[in-house]
Amino acid sequence: MITGPVWSQKLRTEIAKAVLGNDVVIERLLVALLANGHVLLEGMPGLAKTLLIKSLGSALGVHCDRIQFTPDLLPSDVVGTMIFQPNTGQFTAHRGPIFANLVLADEINRAPAKVQSALLEAMQEKQVTIGGKTHALPKPFFVMATQNPVEQDGTYALPEAQMDRFIFKLLVDYPSAEEETLLMDRWGQVTTQPELVAVSSGEELLELRKQVDLIYVSPEIKAYILNLVRATRALVQPMADGTRYLNFGASPRACLALYQASRALAWLRGMDHVSPEHVQEVFPDALRHRISLTYEAEAAEMNAEKLLKQIVNKEAVPTVGVKAA
């Protein structure tokens, strides 16, 4: 039986042929796969966000399709449409690029809301409706989207309902000087480029998820997860001086995201139970896109990262031992 560290290492080794650094981001992507969740990657242009997702799909050995989101994109360009067949006189469903195991929604915030909302049913129910008929999406199915934080012209902010469907929002940073030097050596050749091979499969991933479901989560850890999420909702209420930090807190979906992601991270690390440290590690990635800061908070130079760190520091950490017998 394959273990979490072994599976993680073989995927990391293959992805490293094309992508340098971003070890934490890669681990979070693997966690999202195991937790059956979707991921939003945000970072400056040129940080290999698209390459990272494509490399993950190649290493995982699943059908990967890319949708380049643009202002003139239509919902039918994503999910598909009904096509008239002259020889039969009937309409048949033409499936769009969303019928893939891994859908790369590149620069997702460049398309208007009607196109973004075309993903809502797919991301939640793992199905789409074309011509009044429901079509199941392949298994496994996950959406990995990219956007950059600096370009605002011609972009459309993702609605809160869609943001909430991503298990993680990951921030991609610049590589180190050593990694950038190696980048020139590896990608500087015009005629030869790194090639990746499949070291896993969609079927293997589905089987590994069964192992993740066996990871033990104590009642104390469940209560800890609940307290962390509900602490964001408490900040919606005005404080003694009348200021409010949040317009709204995290939804119940955040509890599920924390619970599932903590289990997946524990399995990847070779553990058979979830510890408070596992929850704390994935907490910012699972919550930063599920809260909305008020004007007062932004004026006080508060951001989501600082606020979530304060919540973790204030919340009592449970003392949990090894897995219960």
Structural class: alpha/beta
CATH architecture title of the largest domain: 3-Layer(aba) Sandwich
Question: What share of residues is helical?
Answer: 40-55%
Superfamily (CATH H level) name of the largest domain: P-loop containing nucleotide triphosphate hydrolases
Mean pLDDT figure: 90
Q: What's the structural domain tally? A: 2
Strand content: 15-25%
Figure out the total of helices. Answer: 14
Main beta-sheet annotation: 5 strands, parallel
Please trace the helix and strand order, writing H or E for each element. HHEHEHEEEHHEEEHEHHHEHHEHH
Which spans of ≥5 residues are poorly predicted at pLDDT below 50? none
The name CATH uses for the topology of the largest domain is Rossmann fold
Count of beta strands = 11
From the N-terminal CA to the C-terminal CA, the straight-line distance is 22 Å
Across the major sheet, the strand order is 2-5-8-1-9
Overall CATH class of the largest domain: Alpha Beta
Shape: globular
Topology (SSEs and partners):
Blueprint: H1 4-15, H2 23-34, E1 38-43, H3 49-60, E2 64-68, H4 75-79, E3 80-85, E4 90-95, E5 102-106, H5 113-116, H6 120-125, E6 127-130, E7 133-136, E8 142-147, H7 160-163, E9 166-172, H8 177-187, H9 202-212, H10 219-234, E10 246-248, H11 252-268, H12 276-287, E11 292-293, H13 295-299, H14 304-314
Helix pairs in contact: 2-11, 10-11, 10-12, 11-12, 12-14
Q: How would you summarize what this structure contains?
A:
The protein has 325 residues and is α/β, with parallel strands linked by helices. Helices cover 42% and strands 17% of the residues. Strands 2-5-8-1-9 form a five-stranded parallel β-sheet. Strands 3-4 form a two-stranded antiparallel sheet. The protein has a two-stranded antiparallel sheet with strand order 6-7.
